[in-house]
Design goal:
The chain is α/β, with parallel strands linked by helices. It is built from 17 helices and 9 strands. The protein is about 45% helix and about 15% strand. The chain has a 9-stranded mixed β-sheet, sandwiched between helices. Helix 1 runs antiparallel to helix 2 and helix 9 packs across helix 14. The longest helix has 16 residues. About 45% of the residues are buried.
Length: about 375
């Protein structure tokens, strides 16, 4: 039967069947472990000894039902936009003058990234803040990710996602709103400013809205950069040499990769933990030393329970739009650039109206998980002048 798309928004409640949790526990117990490579260190991938310990906690100590209750404490919904089911969290503020704000995650993240920010954003007075900083918060799962997955067709680039987000906010009755995100979410937020410049009051990103410098840079251009900017260019170049493999696989063979990740919870866990170790700050710290261990596992669970490793990779990388220059939307844009990040203002200004740029000497790629208080403060200050 052909399903006709409507504006209908349906309540969504997480209630994973116990059989699915039992299957996960059985798979974890039956893992076929590879022999450690020489040294068993992070330079060759996720160390076997470390992962065994995390898997044992996942199997015997982690409580999905507690995580499920935490997620269900925030109102959740689904709607169909452009033929795709979209899952989202929607928490309204008790403050009548609250500004709507849409938060967008990236890969390998999920809506779980923002859980600790919902309370302070929606009810600042209850969290030591000012009522004038209140937001109505909308947190969608990217198409193909988690409960917005899998994707039903191709072409979900950041522009199409931004158009879907603009429609989502229309359905929720928000004519005027702000946008915040990182990673893929940063690209979506910048595009949201382009597709709805008359509705988006401001764009706030962590890491930078793009574009990145066109490496390798000519010597003369490199010499004109500050020491901080030269360090970021060097780390971009190192990334392309040392870490680009996952993008090459996900952007060319996401389905082939998906077979292993959807069938093996340990494979899925390792694939994501590799990035949490590389992209959190400081880099040499173990992931659970930067982000709560159970929070890490809850994020992985949204990929595992929905079997969306392949579709998330497909949307995150295989559907990237052209690399040509983009139109500047004119929407006021702020960037909070943490120590791990590589955004450079002079390049970002080519396509964005940068009105606030803050370089920070700590924090990594997963801002809402690593430095929620700093992110919250910057978001409040930026949008405070735009309400």
């Amino acid at each position: 039967m052909l399903v006709t798309e409507t504006d209908e928004i349906r309540p969504f409640h997480l209630d994973i069947p116990q059989a699915a949790l039992d299957e996960l526990a059985a798979k974890l117990a039956a893992t076929r472990w590879p022999a450690p490579l020489p040294g068993d260190g992070w330079d060759t991938g996720v160390p076997t000894a470390w992962l065994r310990t995390l898997v044992e906690h996942w199997r015997t100590g982690y409580d999905w039902r507690a995580a499920e209750r935490e997620l269900n404490a925030i109102p959740q919904f689904t709607t169909v936009i452009d033929g795709q089911r979209i899952h989202f969290l929607h928490a309204r503020s008790p403050e009548p003058g609250a500004l709507p704000l849409i938060l967008t995650h990236g890969w390998p993240g999920s809506v779980v990234e923002f859980l600790d920010l919902v309370g302070p954003l929606t009810d600042p007075r209850a969290h030591g803040g000012d009522a004038g900083d209140a937001f109505h918060v909308v947190i969608p799962s990217l198409p193909g990710f988690g409960f917005s997955g899998p994707v039903s067709d191709a072409g979900w680039d950041t522009n199409r996602i931004a158009r879907a987000w603009a429609e989502l906010m229309r359905r929720l009755g928000y004519a005027r709103f702000g946008a915040q995100g990182g990673d893929v979410g940063a690209g979506v937020c910048a595009e949201l400013g382009r597709v709805a410049p008359d509705r988006v009051v401001g764009v706030h990103v962590n890491g930078g809205p793009g574009p990145m410098p066109p490496v390798p840079l000519p010597d003369e251009e490199r010499a004109a950069l500050s020491a901080l900017e030269q360090d970021r260019v060097a780390r971009i170049e190192a990334f392309l040499q040392e870490e680009f493999g996952y993008i090459a696989v996900q952007s060319t063979r996401p389905q082939t990769l998906g077979y292993g990740l959807v069938d093996s919870p340990v494979g899925q866990l390792a694939w994501i933990m590799d990035k949490f170790r590389e992209w959190t700050h400081p880099r040499h710290a173990l992931p659970e030393e930067v982000v709560d261990r159970d929070r890490l596992l809850t994020n992985v669970m949204l990929y595992w329970l929905t079997g969306t490793a392949g579709s998330a990779a497909y949307v995150g990388y295989a559907q990237a739009e052209g690399w040509g220059p983009k139109e500047n939307s004119g929407v006021p844009t702020a960037a909070l650039v943490f120590a791990h990040d590589v955004g450079i203002r002079r390049y970002a200004e080519r396509e964005n109206t940068i009105v606030r740029w803050t370089d920070v000497d700590r924090g990594g790629h997963f801002a809402a998980l690593e430095e929620p208080d700093l992110l919250l403060q910057d978001v409040r200050e930026f949008f405070g002048s735009l309400r």
